[in-house]
Amino acid sequence: RIDNFDEVRRAITSVERCRLFVDDAGVGYAGLHHILELQPDVVKLDISLVRDIDHDPARQALVSGMRHFADLTNTLLLGEGVETIEEAETLRSLGVDFGQGYHFGRPASATSFT
Questions:
Q1: What is the phi/psi pair of residue 29, to 5°?
Q2: Residue in 28, 30, 102, 63 with CA at minimum distance from that of residue 20
Q3: What are the two backbone dihedrals, phi and then psi, of residue 61, each rounded to the nearest 5 degrees?
Q4: In the 8-state DSSP scheme, what is residue 111?
Q5: Cα pseudo-dihedral 40, 62, 79, 88, rounded to 10
Q6: What would the 3-class secondary structure string for 10-42 be?
Q7: For residues 84 and 76, what is the distance between their CA atoms, to the nearest angstrom?
Q8: What is this structure's pTM?
Q9: What is the pLDDT of residues 46-92, one digit of tens each?
Q10: CA 9, CA 56: separation in Å to the nearest integer?
């Protein structure tokens, strides 16, 4: 939750070479208002928008609208929770720039740097 967008924007612009990602776009606090106010570099589309997108014209229409927004604002889109080749192909056809999920690979353990 963000109570003061002006403060957040000032903090972000004070950091050199900062890139802003908005996670879980489409649910919870990461709604359209946050995307408009924060003007992120990357919008990560929530799994609830990605799941079964290959069978759901409403989800496809919403992601198409986000693609249009992304084109006009120079924002990258990332699809979260891509689990099937069909979801990946549909997202690609809708112009989503990146994807993450089990279709691409399972999470791996972090390596220790000690």
A1: -80, -15
A2: 30
A3: -65, -40
A4: P
A5: -150
A6: HHHHCCCCCCCEEEEECCCCCCHHHHHHHCCCE
A7: 21
A8: 0.83
A9: 999 999 999 999 999 999 999 999 999 999 999 999 999 999 999 99
A10: 35
Alpha-carbon distance of 13 to 45, in angstroms, equals 24
User: CA end-to-end span of the chain, whole Å?
Assistant: 35
- List pLDDT tens digits, range 88-113: 999 999 999 999 999 999 888 777 55
For residue 40, what are its two tokens?
């992120």
* Amino acid identity, position 16: E
106: amino acid identity, one letter:
R
Q: Across the chain, what does the average pLDDT equal? A: 89
What share of the chain in percent tops pLDDT 90? 62
Measured in residues, the chain has a length of 114
Sign for the pseudo-dihedral over CA of 52, 56, 59, 63: positive
Order the strands of the 76-80 sheet from edge to edge: 21-25, 42-45, 76-80, 98-100
Q: Which helix (H) or strand (E) holds 23?
A: strand 21-25
